[in-house]
Amino acid sequence: MMRAAGWITMTMMALAAPQALAAETGSQASLDGLADTLGYQYAMVDNGPECPAGIDGCFLSTITLTMPETLPADVPTKGLSLYFSFVNRLPLVESDIFTHRLINGDLQQLTLKPGATLRPGAKHEIKLWGVGSNFSKAFGMPNAYLVADGLEPRTIAATRPVIDPETGLETLPFVAPMTDEAKLATKSEADKTRWLTAERAFDLQAGRLAPEATGIVILPKPAKAVQGKGQPVDLGRGVALALTGIDRGTVAPALAALGAPEGALPLTIRIDPAATAKPESYILDAKASGIAITAHDAAGASHALRSLAQQAAFEKGKLTPLHVEDAPEYGFRGLHIDLGRNFHGRDEILKLVEAMAAYKLNKLHLHLAEDEGWRIEIPALPELAEIGSKRCHDPSERTCLLPQLGAGPDGTSGVNGYLTTADYIAIVKAAAARQIEVIPSIDMPGHSRAAIKAMEVRHARLTAAGKTAEAEQYRLIDPADTTEYRSIQNYDDNTLNVCIPATYRFVDTVVDALAAMHKQAGVPLKTFHLGADETAGAWVKSPACQAMIAENGGDAGKLTPRFIERVTASLAAKGLRTGGWSDGMGHTETANMPKQPHLVQTNIWGVLHTGAIREAHDQLGRGWDVVLSIPDLGYFDMPYAPHPEEGGYDWASRGVDPYQVYGFMPDNLPANAATIRNIHAEGKPIEDKPVLEAGHRVAGLQAQLWSETIRTDAQVDYMLFPRLLALSERAWAPAPWTPAYRAGVSYEWGDSRVDAAKLKAGWQDFAGRVAAQWPVLERIGVAYRVAPPGARIRNGKLEANSMFPGTAIEYRVGEGAWTRYAGPVAVSGAAELRSRSADGKRASRTVRVEPAR
């Protein structure tokens, strides 16, 4: 999944002021003044420098601190510290005045060297030699802050994020522009990535330009849809609803999306599995005399209404007669939202549930716990939400977790929070009303730091009250464990101990609480996702684990699979399916897993060129339900394009654009090498081992949004849409350009066996239908990405184009006014351009083009 090499962790720096400038103790006002005036800039220098001895694969970045010209006489010095986040490993920091140590996770500490002083107006450059790379400004973490003994911490004003009024997106003014493509765009000579500049985007888009849609715009594309002749279907007359085999409440959200009042136009909905044999299938007939829907089930009826609503919106309420016959090819069409790293609340999730229903997605995977946050109220264990949901400056972590990922010191920013039981029940109800299953996820045994720390607070509270036995009930660690480890995210204390009864008691309590919430919502819990990925090398020196290690031949690495097998058996006894990420699930013994394979769901998150095919084919062969969560397809926290202004982590892909998602071929994974470049070993085919056994097919696809760099709801919308529309299209039906799978056959970039002409034609049709959806998304409240235009200047003329047809483009020269672009126009000198949303309320980021030389 998730988040392997390629991280920065700008975190915790301590900075001490000199006695020459102030006394040891000072006032809150003086600390506040220093936080308001201290200059702070983070800059990327080189992604491929000559590394210091002992460090491989390094990159160089800097933090420059500029002291104010004047300092108050009583600036505090005792315990004066500066905290900041840095998400890559940081083995070396070079500074003339600071020494460095790692605190934990993405927290670092710099302290003044003995005898070092800070002077008014002085600049101090700190060199940070990180491991991996930093290709985007988004890696700079905000909200660095100052603390001093006896005073309240204060955020350094220069590091606060700012909302751009034009785009509605968060910006980080303290991160220096990244302009040197030669040093910053790639990590090595083998990496062929180039920034997607406006000129390159123009060339790329010129080969894919699509006309505006004129006919059927339904998305995902139905299996069969034809427009007829005759009088239009006038929804303005209102509808007279008649139902057979279904009640109005079951399709109420879809009816609301249609937006037609009660009136005279007959609208009949009939459930008839004999007439529509496939689950979720439907037949829609819309004529001037009335609309008839025949569906297999409630989901099919809702899908029919959603298709009708899309077409009605496009045709302004007066539809051309329409006949649709449709059913999904894949039963699992999912969206995963990470609430753990940075919280996104009830309103945002409810909005996304409505958007999912509009485009026929049916599984909402809520990632409710991570190292950085616990996001669901469990009444029996109140500390989970009270402590685990908040990040603030408390080194003891008795009131909150430390402020990882630039959360800031006061615990009040929007990245904090949790879903109450009432919130969760409301989400489950809303999803069920739209035929969407909610799959709760609590990642374990790794990625569990928030739970561990919260349960340590519980343990301390009850121990202090003399309730020793009760205190031990949910303690998730072995205090005698001296194992030293670091997780991928650089934590040394984030793994549940799988050898103690308290861990399994904890899992049962959490699952039972979630099941009770589902029951209160009137929707039984069906699937629990336990994560099970990226478990660090814990437990080797845990006395509690010695017997279990011995039982597994002395191999502590087998304890995670034994944990997964035990929890899966417990869940199966409760009638629940187990979900997990493929790396953990793949290490289990199939014989130890449930005999009913449908009780196991595995999400494949390996990168296409390095592990996805092996994992998918292996786990399909075990008979499990395999869901493709491949980063190249569905990690929507990855940037849209390789460009420093595009946010998101990029450890798996430098760019996942809608075209790549749309073109994905779920039924022939090796063939995707023809359309998705391996930028580190171009031309090397993917090995098809093990081969896919006959009769096996993936259960479906899932989009993922991990939230390390996503702090606002607007960023959630930006990263998901329109890519999620491409995934919904591909999750509904396989790609028509997919060559038949043949065992052992490999493919290379541009392979002619994948029909590029058919892919291009499909994209052009799809792009037109996407552009027709903008008003639908705007009504739901989704702040979808407005892609910047492609542009070039040739022979004194500015030319521009867009990814999607009908997009409004504006340009200006120098400091001139923004002008609507209507076609090639003469300009003198460089020009800036931006696109606008369909409603005109938001702009894309601004791009600049220079005259061709």
From TrEMBL:
GO cellular component, one term: membrane
Similarity comment: Belongs to the glycosyl hydrolase 20 family.
Name the record gives this protein: beta-N-acetylhexosaminidase
Alphabetic keyword roster: Glycosidase, Hydrolase, Signal
Organism, scientific name: Sphingopyxis italica
Residue intervals of the Chitobiase/beta-hexosaminidases N-terminal domain: 36-200
Pfam families membership: CHB_HEX, CHB_HEX_C, Glyco_hydro_20, Glyco_hydro_20b
Signal peptide region: 1-22
Top EC class for this record: hydrolase
GO biological process, one term: glycosaminoglycan metabolic process
UniProt-annotated catalytic positions: E534
Coiled coil: none
Reaction(s) catalysed (UniProt annotation): Hydrolysis of terminal non-reducing N-acetyl-D-hexosamine residues in N-acetyl-beta-D-hexosaminides
SMART domains: CHB_HEX
Gene Ontology MF annotations: beta-N-acetylhexosaminidase activity; polysaccharide binding
